[in-house]
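Sequence in, structure out. Go.
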Amino acid sequence: MSKSSYFHQKMPPKKLRHTYGVETQLSMMDTAELVGGINNLIRALRRRGIHVVDYDNRERRLYKVLEIRGSLCFLAAEETDGEKDN
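Output:
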């Protein structure tokens, strides 16, 4: 989508404009940029003491998302006794 066509789109209702703009910007980003953003969010949450965990196995923490040959993969590990306090 070119910049000129982006600015000439019909605007959604005022309540939805903020969300609409963010979703549109995200849809124009490369996959590598999105993956980098996800990794930044994971690190920011971890610094706050919030860990993203596996829904079925709460011992597994998400550490990183990677793009390998066009597929997205994640790195997760089970926490050890030393990590449980963090």
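Check: The CA atoms of residues 13 and 20 lie 10 Å apart. The longest helix spans residues 31-47.
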